[in-house]
Amino acid sequence: MVPTNTPFALALSSPYSLIQDIFTRSRKSSEEVPTAVSDEFRRAFPDSETRAKVPYLSRGNLQQLKGKTVRWKGMVQDNSMGNEIVLATLPGSSEPKCALYGADSLTTEGAAGSEAATEAFGAPSGSDLTERSVLYAASLPGRSSWARDADRAALALEEAFSAGGSEGVRSSEAPEASTSSATSFGVKEKVPMSDSSDALGVLLKVYDITAAEALQAGDVVEVVGILDFGPLPSSEWASGSSAADDSAVPEQLHPTLHVLYHDKLADVWSSKPAESSASTSNSAAVSTQTAETTRAALISKLAATLSGDETAAEWLLLALIASIHTRKAPFALGHLSLRLHLPTSNSPSELPALLSHLLPSVVPLPLTLKSLNDPSISYPPHSLPDSTGLRAGHLQLPRGTTLLVEEAISEGKLGAHGLSNLECLQEVVGRSELGYRFPFNPAPFMLPVDLGVVILCQEEALSAEEEAKGGKKALSGGLIKCDVDVLVSPSSASSSAAKTEQSSNSSDADLPALRNHLLRARQLARTLAVPAVVAEEIQKDFVASRSSASASTNASAAAAAASASQEDLLRQMDVARLLSASRGRAELTFEDFKKAKEMDQRRVEELAVRRKVGVGKQK
């Protein structure tokens, strides 16, 4: 017979009983109770095996889990909703009874100071009250199905890889239940990609005020809490009406988690608290031979979606593992935004399907004149003077998300709204900052972001006359300035193999190994060491490049100039770091720097030639 009074059983099925027991035993003040509760529930769920038994919150099981302990992973969308004054203990009771974590509403069917509470227990005194922070969180935008399965099974992504990827991870999610008309899946305007079938917005009631203040918009959090339903805290005063005025209209209730404890994660790739992920990343190194083999397989798979061009695929690999390791204004070091110029024969739709099998979170962004000007589409998060508070923009995304922009701008007029969207996107791509817009504040409030950025733009087809003359179209795209532009050149020798490879992308058994390689390479890139002797060699090479650039008069002048500025050196250093990390190395080598410099010069030469011979108007 399974015991029902163990800490684990109580924490899972009777959380309020365990909280009352903690409250009675500890006799702590209301400010100290959240720490004691957090410690006790962490001890009850010490590892992934026990956490996996805690139901994972989703749209399908909302109604069945009210009042139960649940897990959930999401992004902090709004941390400006303020604090609430609530009952800490029920007033007038013969022995202290804890009213935190929603216990007050279960007992009195009302909030602190309500008529029900007053009639049942008498008016609360100051010692009976405390405060809690209210935040709004949204499900992780663009979450891939295999990563969602790992989240539900309480597996780190590394564990999901060893379990065989999405095929080896299964969740026991309850079938979708009918939801009351007064209950929502969250505030649509506050949930990025709210049209997704798994999108969910949740109010977080955090009783540890200090821990809540450490959370910023865009942070990834893993939460264990008690599920409840409640209104937005600002709904009454914002509408200018009282509860009595709206008695005939059922109040909209939203999923609410009374947070027992939470962990702030480094990014969408991480399963460890942010402060511990950096200390463990040095263990990510694997044997060079294994890394090189997996790296070659990954480049081959990426090339299959890029007309067989392995050079372009290598650039794409580097962009996928890039993340910011140092910020020195105005530079965000480690970031590598990439634009791929696709030939007319290369459909832009092939790559997104593959990336969704390789990356944990991929968000597509069609970039057209129509979408930029559409008043219903806002890239920056913005606040309006209504009950909703901060509204999510299309670019309010958590760290580590890959933004896949499909650039297809036609001729036309860009309005004020479109220009604002475009400026916001350029800030994200160029400066790794996202501007939050607020009323009566002309300048946006800038917060750092760390997104992978891949821009796809496709050539226009040549006319029959141009094709007969062997002409080439001028490069399209370029509306958004990025770090690296790369031409994708079809490889006739490998086109047939590429199509075969692409057709089996989603079912290959090597996907877990490829995902693991990407994860480890990202970890290595952030902590990669630069030996003093290598730094000295790079410095000498830079001085020599600057000297030769001014004297260069041949056809490679453009490539030589590409090595002459500090900005170019920083870019090539970032590329070199990513090359070393992609090969499983924990230290930068001068050979990788030389390879990075050669890759950079070659792509500059190709772009210069293409711009020179292209026909048609440059966009």
TrEMBL record:
GO CC terms, sorted: nucleus
Principal location: nucleus
Coiled coil location: none
A Pfam family recorded for this sequence: MCM_bind
Keywords from the UniProt entry: Nucleus
Keyword set includes Nucleus: yes
Low complexity bias locations: 171-184
GO biological process, one term: DNA-templated DNA replication
Subcellular location: Nucleus
Region (Disordered): 165-192
One function term, GO molecular function aspect: chromatin binding
Protein name: Uncharacterized protein
Species in which this protein is naturally found: Pseudomicrostroma glucosiphilum
